[in-house]
Amino acid sequence: MATQQSRPRIGVLVLSPDFVKPFRLFHFRRKEMESQEVKYVGVDCGKKSIEVVRINSENSLERRQFSTTESGINNLLQWLTLNDIVGLEAGSQSFRIAKSILNKGVQVIVLNPGNLATIYQSLKKTDKEDSLKIARLIQRHPIEELPTVPIPNDEEEDNRRLCSEHENWTKQLTQGKNRLHSLFTQAGLTQITKNTYEQKQIEKSL
């Protein structure tokens, strides 16, 4: 009697409605995110205003201007989307703005302006053009090829601020001493040197 070969069993997978609904929602959201293309945003930070240009997927441009106040930066954050990649040059306000953008979950690239100077040399210098140049730069070059600056944490930023203040006051002190030396020399008080600029030493010299 010939042995009968076993056939593969064909079964039916039955999914409960409670599983199908969230699965379909997840699948739809994933497809929606994949269909959305990355947009590139260049930011130029001034003292009182922020000039912004976004390059859309069809290469059309969106221009915006925001103030550097807290409300202005909040408006910038509301305007940005999770599909944006933001680029800006390192500067006095850049790190504060970059941290706010990062906290929203948007990718941000801080660029070293010293290394970008040669790239911008032949282009006209205006704020709006700078923001567009930055947007073009991060659009055309991978981040590995860009001269980036790491965003400091709060402690590092405090240390930088203290060092900057120390350097500023040291420079002002040196300028003050040079000014006094010039005045004393003009008045014929040549016995007073830069090493005798403490108040008590000046009084003794006089």
Automatic annotation (TrEMBL):
Domain annotation Transposase IS110-like N-terminal: ranges: 41-186
An MF annotation (GO) of this entry: DNA binding
One Pfam family it belongs to: DEDD_Tnp_IS110
GO BP, one annotated term: DNA transposition
Entries under InterPro entries matching the protein: Transp_IS110-like_N (IPR002525), Transpos_IS110 (IPR047650)
Protein name: Transposase
Organism, scientific name: Leptospira interrogans str. UI 12758
